[in-house]
Design goal:
Elements (H helix, E strand, L loop, with lengths): L2 H15 L8 H27 L4 H11 L3 H9 L2 E5 L12 H15 L9 E7 L2 E11 L5 H4 L5 H10 L13 E13 L38
Antiparallel strand pairs: 1-4, 2-3, 3-4
Length: 230
């Protein structure tokens, strides 16, 4: 037997004996999937369906801005894990990804460009982050035609002004249908310094805001600055 062959067999033997990475619990994966599915259903029922019915997009945007940012917290409490949305280019800086999320979305983008069906793409793993052992999960969010109303290249002027007022650092525009626009993300602490973590403490449910008194014709709320005369 050659030295090369002996070395190769030794490496294979070591690999076979190496401990396998810890696999996520099926209950945690199901909880993350259910949170994402619930968010999808609420978004379809309360936002995109209204745009599909040709309701005024400004009225729909005001409803979105008043209510959708709170959904993540309520779903987190129901699933007893941290559930959120993130993206490589975000509208709200508070939704910027951490290093792991960014790496996974870059990988998702590569796989989707290679033709992978987004419905089959899911990432779930156990990681060590400092003193914590955590469950991490992500699933892609794909641009639909309705998404282009607020994230496309030709955003209606009134919507564009409203977004600019609320999110002056907005970078989530210029998308086309079928592109990766972001991802659902879930995180759950499994242990802290090798010990069971403190129990999940639900946050107070945010109060649902009353109907916005502004009318669609009220937008834009702030007129764009006119250039100074020469």
């Amino acid at each position: 037997m050659t030295g090369f062959r002996r070395a190769s067999l030794a490496l294979l033997a070591l690999a076979a004996c190496a401990p396998k990475p810890e696999q996520p619990a099926s209950n945690d994966i199901r909880a993350a999937r259910q949170a994402a599915l619930t968010f999808d259903q609420k978004m379809s029922r309360e936002i995109t369906a209204r745009l599909d019915r040709a309701e005024d997009p400004v009225a729909v945007w005001l409803s979105y801005a008043d209510n959708v940012p709170f959904w993540g917290q309520s779903l987190s409490d129901a699933a007893q894990l941290e559930f959120s949305r993130t993206a490589l280019t975000v509208r709200n800086p508070a939704n910027a990804p951490d290093d792991w999320e960014r790496q996974q979305m870059e990988q998702m983008s590569f796989l989707l460009d290679a033709g992978l069906d987004p419905d089959t793409l899911e990432i779930a793993e156990i990681r060590t982050e400092g003193a914590e052992t955590v469950f991490r999960w992500m699933r892609p969010i794909i641009v639909t035609e309705t998404c282009l109303t607020c994230h496309g290249e030709a955003i209606p002027p009134r919507i564009k002004l409203l977004i600019g007022q609320e999110y002056p650092l907005d970078d989530a525009v210029g998308y086309a249908e079928g592109q990766l626009i972001g991802a659902y993300s879930a995180r759950k602490v499994l242990s802290l310094n090798g010990q069971p973590p403190p129990p999940y403490t639900p946050q107070p449910a945010p109060e649902r805001l009353p109907a916005d008194p502004r009318q669609p014709d009220d937008a834009p709320l702030v007129q764009p600055t006119q250039p100074a005369p020469p």
